[in-house]
Write a structure and sequence with these properties.
The protein has 284 residues and is of the alpha+beta class. 41% of the residues lie in helices and 14% in strands. β8 and β9 form a beta hairpin.
Amino acid sequence: MYCPGRVAAIIAVLLFITIICSYYFVMTGIMQIYYIVILIILPFVVVIIDLFLRKRLLPRGKHQTELALSLKKLKLRWLLRKNGSGLRQWKRIKLGLPRTVADSSFKDNLSKAIIPDGLVEPEKITASRPGSLFGCILGTAIALLVIWGLISVRVPSLLKWFVIAMLFWNIFRLILGLPSIHRSRKLPFFLRAIGRRRLLGVPIVVGPGWVKRGKNVWHANRDMLLIRRTGFRPASSEIDCMLAGPKRRSRLTFSGTGDEDFQLLFKFWNVDEVRLEFIDSELS
């Protein structure tokens, strides 16, 4: 499956190098100043191109496998937002497509998942927007530097202590945002919600062969779950999922294939017997 973000990252690095070199050429009189203005505008063009490419389901080129050809015929596009309309001409069963399609790099990780055998009770899960170790270290270092500077200024002020408190809160949030911290369901719900950046949001309930998000329901007898990578991030840090069907599409991100909420989604979606009678349970 297509992995979004990589093309944009490579172009961004090349543009940064080009801008630095162009500045040197302008200073030496080899290049005119308006070339730099053009180069400054180019990153915005890259962002627009990247947004267009993110909708792609399959990488460009010839698709040799039967699965890839069937997905191409389905004419399904990836969502940029959380929710979107479904496909009116939904032909998953006719094209012989499975209920779950994942990037080939997930094969080893997903093959270890134990699919429940028998009746399973519905469970609530939470999507996430995972942070990165680099972002956590950088953000914490900057926050501590600012805190040290504020404390050094010996001027009593309620505003100063409020800013210091907010900076400590940000450090706490950055640490909880690391995938290795908040992917476990053993962590208290409130702390997990802070780390996953999902304090508020529509509840997601998974049951035997179905997913309910708000009033929208997807079930494995008709709909599909698609899973792909995100940029250069490893599969253990962040993955991008989409539920698709004739009525609605919905996008979910998780903190890697080891995320226990994602594990619940994957296992419940792939049970042998779909039990739709539990959709209207008290939990959902």
